[in-house]
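fyi for ur records
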Amino acid sequence: MRIDIITVLPEMIEGALHTSILKRAQEKGLVEFGLHNLRDYTLDKHKRVDDYPFGGEAGMVMQIEPIDRVITFLKEQRHYDEVIFTTPDGEQFSQASANELSLMQNITILCGHYKGVDYRVREHLITREISIGDFVLTGGELVAAMIADAVVRVIPGAIGDEQSALSDSFQDGLLAPPVYTRPAVYKGWKVPEVLLSGHERKIEEWRLNQSVERTKRLRPDLTRNR
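which gave:
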């Protein structure tokens, strides 16, 4: 899989792409990243990629020309299954989204910035718009890193224990159950006896019940359609 990221702040995301699971996935040849500085695709001598909005609204807007140039360049190299724009008013990113994207060969992520992007980019160059929540960040670089991490970790072979990724929260629409490790007793706080019993069926029943209870208590919105 290849993930290309278009950004005005490549240094903000570079470290995340070469750490932990993402680093190991690259070393295994499971994923390849391409970072593209949008300023390299502008004809402006000062490397500006933004301008004032028509109509006099406050803030600056990302220009269409450099974005079109970089996307056109990338598409000349390979076919892209999705060209994603990170924006607060996009579709809500979820585990299901990550699972879907992990099955694709090539995706591009355009990191939003400033007041927004010339809307013609969204109308003509983007295939999908993604948000991680109803709030605004300085830029989409952190969002792109989160998308990349969520997508790559479910690619078979990216993590040592594939079952671990499959049992993460939200994979089955439920929050994950509580987990414990040694010591079994600490300051009088005990690990639930069922987890020490070795009884596989009872343990699985306990985990499912805990997942359902935690989801109803902490994220009731996830249970409305169940």
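Strands lie at 2-7, 32-37, 50-51, 61-62, 82-92, 106-111, 116-117, 128-131, 185-186, 189-190. thats all i got for now
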